[in-house]
Design brief:
This protein is of the alpha/beta class. The protein folds into two domains: 148 residues, Aspartate Aminotransferase, domain 1; 225 residues, 3-Layer(aba) Sandwich (Aspartate Aminotransferase, domain 2). The protein is 39% helix and 13% strand. The strands form three sheets. The protein has a seven-stranded mixed β-sheet with strand order 2-8-7-6-5-3-4, with helices on both faces. Strands 9-12-11 form a three-stranded antiparallel β-sheet. The structure holds pyridoxal-5'-phosphate (PLP). The site of pyridoxal-5'-phosphate (PLP) has 13 residues, from α4.
Length: 405
């Protein structure tokens, strides 16, 4: 009898973490590695938010809270949805979890019957399909093409919907592509969803505050108000306020679902840290100037990375409208030979080549169920980004022009 449950057979360890682990091992050996693989801001949590956490400890706010999160935090979140998204949720329609990740998991676990389907547009965040499987559901992967801006089209959505479809997962701005769905894009998807009342929308808005240039942020519950009652809107403080380690995410949606999610959380983590909840109130309702400052910095970094990467022979990347990732097309390097006689047969091979040849860690597209691509995270200091991109250009230049037979 195996000690490990059969449930885990179909679950893969995260490739984002696998590449980071390999890069860390090389670093430990003393190699000079530029790591552009992780999905978290390199900024410190802004001082006024950290202070709110410290104050919470000093004032002894260190006891259990209500499972759904303190009333004060949920009130702050209610205000945020009104202020930023014009969405009117009651406090009871809001739950707070240990990061947006737990909120997604609780929602799937609370709602899926065995074999029910969840439409996951790809490229996607590595965790979605595995979370669906862990919750007993079946992920239905729907490819979104680069030529469609990596966005789900209404036609593809229509084709993927079946009687057992329970959820459509939407993530905008997107990890890993940076694609941003405008209100028009969401309206066109909503047209299809109107015909299929069994389908609900899980809108993962965790990168909401990182939208650049002309693009504007939109979310399904606002873009299609008649889907408000069928939508779970998820967000958090990790990316917008550089608080990945504090573990605070939240969801708002149908009260029946929120109650069920609270049951799961009540029997697992209970709630996120009381201290983090106090800091999150400040992050959500306090001074917001850090949000704009982060966005400006990320936009500068994006421009640098896109400009450099498009100079690398064999690589191409459109400027992403949001998040902090560049999803680079590496089709033209597949089949090329390396100086030591190896052949690059896949994006994973190319990523390993970059690590070994020039010491740059990125994540292969296969980790996001889309090949041949790789993801650069530009949540790194600008000097590291410039150095990393220059190394990538050098590695591409070194590849033999002719292809292996
Ligand atoms: C699309 C997406 N959703 C959710 C999360 C998780 O956010 P949190 O740190 O709040 O759990 C991430 C983190 O990388 C993400 O990329």
């Amino acid at each position: 009898m195996s000690l490990v449950s059969g449930r885990l057979k179909s679950i893969r360890p995260s490739q984002t973490k696998a590449t980071a682990a390999r890069a860390a091992a090389l670093k430990a050996e003393g190699k000079d590695i530029v790591s552009l693989s992780l999905g978290e801001p390199d900024f410190d949590t802004p001082a006024h938010i950290a202070e709110a956490g410290i104050r919470a400890i000093r004032e002894g706010r260190t006891r259990y809270t209500t499972v759904a999160g303190t009333a004060a935090l949920r009130e702050a979140i209610r205000g945020k949805f009104l202020r930023d998204n014009n969405l009117d949720y009651s406090v009871d329609q809001i739950t707070v979890g240990c990061g947006a990740k737990q909120v997604v998991f609780d929602a799937l676990f609370a709602s899926l019957e065995p074999g029910e389907e969840v439409i996951v547009p790809t490229p996607c965040w590595v965790s979605y399909p595995d979370m669906v499987r862990l919750a007993g559901g079946e992920p239905i992967l729907v490819e979104c093409l680069e030529t469609d801006g990596f966005k789900l089209t209404p036609e593809r959505l229509q084709r993927a919907i079946a009687p057992r479809t329970k959820w459509l997962m939407l993530n905008s701005p997107n990890n890993p592509t940076g694609a941003v769905y405008g209100a028009d894009d969401l309206g066109a998807l909503a047209e299809i969803l109107h015909r299929h009342p069994q389908v609900h929308v899980l809108s993962d808005d965790i990168y909401e505050k990182l939208v650049y240039g002309e693009a504007g942020f939109a979310t399904m519950a606002g873009a299609a108000p008649d889907l408000f009652d069928r939508t779970l809107t998820i967000n958090g403080v990790s990316k917008a306020s550089a608080m990945t380690g504090w573990r605070v995410g939240y969801g708002a949606g149908p009260i029946e679902l929120i109650k069920a999610m609270n049951v799961i959380q009540g029997q697992t983590t209970s709630h996120t840290s009381s201290i983090s909840q106090h800091a999150a109130i400040e992050a959500i309702a306090g001074d917001q100037s850090h949000v704009a400052a982060f966005r400006v910095e990320f936009e500068n970094r994006r421009d640098l990375v896109i400009d450099k990467i498009n100079r690398a022979p064999g690589l191409s990347c459109r400027a992403p409208d949001g998040a902090f990732y560049a999803f680079v097309n590496c089709e033209s390097v597949i089949g090329r030979r390396t100086a030591n006689g190896g052949v690059i047969e896949s994006d994973s091979d190319f990523v390993l080549y970059l690590l070994d040849e020039v010491g740059v860690a990125v994540v292969p597209g296969s980790g996001f169920l889309a090949s041949p691509y790789f993801r650069i995270s530009y949540a790194s200091a600008i000097a590291d980004l410039a150095d990393g991109c220059d190394r990538i250009i050098a590695a591409c230049t070194r590849l033999a022009e002719d292809r292996a037979a």
